[in-house]
Amino acid sequence: MRIAYKDLFDAAVKILKACGENDKNAEITAKNMCKANLRGIATHGVYLLNPIWERVKAGQLKLPTNAVLVMDSAALAIVDGADGLGAVAGELAIQTAIEKAKQYGASTVLIRNTNNIGALACYTETAAKAGMIAIMGCNAAPAMAPWGGGEAFLGTNPLAVASYTGNECLFSADMATSIVARGKIRKAARNGETIPDNWATDKDGNVTTDPNAALKGALLPMGGPKGSALALAVDIMSGILSGASFAPDIKSFHTLEGQTGTGASMIVIDISRFLSPESFAQKMDSYRSNIKGMKKAQGFAEIFLPGEIEYNMEQQNLAKGIPMEDSEVEALNQLLNSIGEAQLQGRQ
Predict the structure, then answer these.
(1) Per-residue pLDDT averaged across 168-175, rounded?
(2) In the 3-class helix/strand/coil scheme, how is 66-81 assigned residue by residue?
(3) pLDDT, tens digit, for every residue of 265-275?
(4) Using the 8-state DSSP alphabet, how is residue 43 labeled?
(5) The model's pTM
């Protein structure tokens, strides 16, 4: 089933407002979620409306979100997310980082006391479109064992980098430091599917293809000790330095365990302080052409730069509608029904 972007956005706004969010914050969060769906990252999309709804009912989410700057000094700032919606804290942080980078050439903004922040590319790409390079990390509840460990300690702790390119298709890398994002394992569990045997271990440290066993065990870091080191670095920057919670004390957003304490960090660099945006764009275009035109490895018809596949998917889904599983639409319709709103209607 495909759902028109506007219909999905409007439905998300209605649900968020029914949860107690104000108009502006609901639109910020809905835009963040729908962009993830557009780009094929459904685990970071409107699926998150369900845990938001459950946390609100349990009194474990403070809406409307009152994210504020609690430290603002030259090129540095800290955002306190006030235990509200992560997208609102993230939007305040990236806009602050962009303005500070324009003024000082580079900026560092940290976030503490927030919740699931969604796809990091939503923020780094905002900075890239403003002529910047942005690096962002975020910590999460224990789901991955550090290299050599036999139990979950670190979160999947994603890391994202985006850069201005001079055209609509940005350089945009956004990845978990685990082999796979935990949301994909949750999705496999919901759908009764198995997972590859190199994704996770069970609670006893044995490799498993059962997503339910994996959720009780630990994900494996990408690249072994290299991914483990990156995850630790993200936790130090986003958790310890920001004043947020850090491993193993962060709580899951998907279970009703109390305040999550999630933290994030972002560094934004103004390209124009080093060379003109026009010159940078020309160099990036040449760089891209050289990569795209090089000899292909066996089995590859095209070389894609980070973010290119997602950009192409976003454009296609804007035109044709966002593909969603029937179960996803049904879950949204149940929420809409709960607040007395018309249900989503898609096309097969």
Answers:
(1) 97
(2) CCEEEEEECCEEEEEC
(3) 999 999 999 99
(4) G
(5) 0.93
